[in-house]
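Reopening: 2-polyprenyl-6-methoxyphenol hydroxylase-like FAD-dependent oxidoreductase still failing for me.
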Amino acid sequence: MATIAVIGAGQAGLVLSAALLRAGWRVTLYSDRTAEDHLGDRGRPTACLFGDQVEYEAELGLDFWPEASRMRRIHLDLFTDDRSLAFSVDAPLRKPALAVDQRLKFSAGLREVERRGAVVKIGAVDVDDLDRLAASHDLVVVTAGHKSLTGLFERDPARSVHSEPQRSLFMVNIQGYDMAARPEHREGVFSFLPGTLEVFWIPFFDKDVGESRSVVVEVTPGGRADRFRDVTSADEGLDVLKEIVDEVFPHESAFLRPARPTSPVTWIKGQIVPVVRKPVAVLPSGRHVLGLGDAVVLNDPLAGQGANNATRMARFFAEELAAHGGPFTASWLTGRFDEWWERGCYTSDFSNGLLAPLTDEQKTVMLAASRREDIGEQLWEGFNDPSSLFPWFFDAAATREFLARRNVGRLDVLRYKLGVGANLLAQKASRLFRRPPVGGTATP
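Support: Ran it again with your exact input. Result attached.
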């Protein structure tokens, strides 16, 4: 029976542990928090899982919240600089998505894998500990994204695109919003002002209040919406968000105005430098360990791929490890990572691609999706399976071919654009010439 030490009881660590326990491995799971500590922790990232990953968690028996709302549609609003709504895309997901508070997930997951036979050890793990564990286990896997351990894994310059943050981030979980003001929020809503601001409104199951919304905000550093740097509390951050929404997305103001945080600790701010690291680290003794999840692949949250990527990676390696049985040499582990990267690269390419300005072809696809629900559904499938977006969403020639296969020709695109232009002119006219009171006159 193979033995493994898993460092980190987050998404990748728990999924890997549950999968290998099912395969008959002896698992020792190292966590820096107890199950109770997780419940008392600060708010964590939204971590919305999409279809295939939701199903895999259920297959592993890690789905403990049947009452949590599933997200079955996404509504996206794309705005112009003058606050005009260019167009909206509203389409179903092929499989439901689910966002559960990670404080609940990690607490319950830690208890569950221990109940199934994993040995759970609580405490920090350093390099000396890794060396000791590597000597006594068939394999050691680092899934924790702590700097003290990720520094062991060398940055891969060939696979890492960025060297500095591309967005400033803010997240807050809210309750008390006015759903009647914006029924679209019964499902997922994305609000985009390209080059300035992206806001994701995600149905969320919060530890303290249950049904809620997690609002993830990404702003261009130094831009007009970059106002969260000095925020020191959930209330303060939510007030800043309300100000920005009033200015940029005023149609969301009525929904957001009465909202309040689900608790004082359910908020996050910061920046992330996307990076891909080499998967095997050599310890001072010459022994080696494998990295998974955020320890080796860290993407900007814009594409919502953090927990999804961790789940896919843990699933792939659990299957490969169980089939191989050992020995787990550095070259074999690196080879498996390279094999995984053949598909995993699309997750990073998707995430990095969304950080770049939208191309004309991408705008055309989104415009077509605003008129054709089937195209919108294909677009949203990228959150579940990023490889499904390639090459057609990121290559101009492939985009034209994709649209042609769906009978969207140049005249159709022209008609769509004319419709958008007419709509934008109508919005500007409405702002310039407001409806006068009875007996009054219109004024600019």
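The chain is about 40% helix and 20% strand. If you still see a failure, please send the error message rather than a screenshot.
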